[in-house]
Write a structure and sequence with these properties.
Layout lengths: L2 E5 L2 E7 L6 E5 H10 L5 E2 L5 E2 L7 H52 L13 H8 L1 H9 L1
Antiparallel strand pairs: 1-2, 2-3, 4-5
């Protein structure tokens, strides 16, 4: 939109052609009518290029806004996917560590080593029942 200039003849609006960049002036009445008509009416620069006042959001602006919104959705989905993959990998590493500990304890007990006091016994079941009865009861509940 142009700049308003007051003259002895009346008010003029200084405009700049959007195509050829030629400065020109239009009357206040024409300016008011073109603002009311917005994109439905046009006027011309001295070189014949059509001019109009755009009202609101253009189709290009709508498409850009939609593109930006979709780009944000894609970035959000990428973040969610990355977080889920990290959680999955972390859970997998915890599972492998737990399986390793279980295997280690099973081998030790299988070789007759007490899991509580780390002593070796030929009859581990009798030792566990007599010396560590709370451990056996606790394991049964779990």
């Amino acid at each position: 939109m142009g700049t308003q200039v007051f003259t002895s003849q009346g008010t003029l609006w200084l405009e700049l052609c959007c195509t050829c960049k030629t400065p020109f002036a239009i009357s206040d009445q024409l300016h008011t009518v073109m603002l009311q008509r917005a994109e439905n009416g046009s006027f011309y620069c001295p070189n014949g290029h059509a001019q109009c006042y755009a009202s609101g959001e253009t189709e290009l602006d709508k498409m850009r806004r939609e593109r930006d919104r979709l780009a944000q959705q894609i970035a959000y989905k990428d973040d969610v996917i990355r977080d889920v993959r990290n959680d999955r990998d972390s859970a997998q590493r915890r599972l492998w560590a737990a399986r390793g500990q279980i295997t280690k304890i099973k081998k030790r007990v299988g070789n007759g080593v007490c899991p509580c006091c780390s002593r070796t016994f030929t009859n581990l079941a009798r030792h566990m029942a007599s010396q560590h009865s709370e451990y056996v009861q606790h394991e049964e509940v779990a």
